[in-house]
């Protein structure tokens, strides 16, 4: 309990009078992902890391960078509530990738947004250019 997240309490047993210490801490509710088909599943940070690493193949984005990005996304989601849609998660990943690596951003966006052709890439590149400026 040395991280400051707990409360230390001294208590006394009503039966025998013995004194003891208890520690209380807030238990975080697990994040739940609402998929596009309406089903739910537990949030898995490793899925974000895997998706980012797949998009970053051959780019200067390390596994540690992907882990930091995934942790930031998880933290952002946990401040909003216990449920998040896949759209919210994808948007948060893209926001962070825009600050990390442009090529990885485009690769991730092409799968996440299901690009159909060159026009989709050009439109997304235009949005990315506006964000970078």
TrEMBL record:
The keyword Aminoacyl-tRNA synthetase does not apply. The keyword Nucleotide-binding applies. One of its GO terms (biological process) is negative regulation of DNA-templated transcription. InterPro entries: ATP-cone_dom (IPR005144), NrdR-like_N (IPR055173), RNR_NrdR-like (IPR003796). PROSITE patterns: ATP_CONE. Residues 31-120 form the ATP-cone domain. Pfam families: ATP-cone, Zn_ribbon_NrdR. Keywords: ATP-binding, DNA-binding, Nucleotide-binding, Repressor, Transcription, Transcription regulation. One of its GO terms (molecular function) is DNA binding. HAMAP family: NrdR. Belongs to the NrdR family. Negatively regulates transcription of bacterial ribonucleotide reductase nrd genes and operons by binding to NrdR-boxes. This is Transcriptional repressor NrdR. The gene is nrdR.
């Amino acid at each position: 309990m040395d991280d400051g997240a707990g409360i230390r309490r001294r208590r006394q047993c009503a039966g025998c009078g013995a004194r003891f210490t208890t520690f209380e801490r807030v238990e975080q509710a697990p994040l739940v992902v609402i998929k596009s088909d309406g089903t739910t599943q537990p949030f898995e940070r490793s899925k974000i890391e895997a998706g980012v690493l797949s998009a970053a193949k051959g780019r200067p984005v390390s596994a540690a960078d992907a882990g930091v990005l995934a942790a930031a996304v998880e933290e952002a989601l946990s401040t909003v509530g216990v449920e998040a849609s896949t759209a919210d998660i994808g948007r948060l990943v893209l926001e962070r990738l825009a600050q990390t690596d442009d090529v990885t951003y485009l690769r991730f966006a092409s799968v996440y947004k299901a690009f159909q052709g060159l026009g989709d890439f050009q439109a997304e590149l235009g949005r990315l250019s506006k964000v970078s400026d």
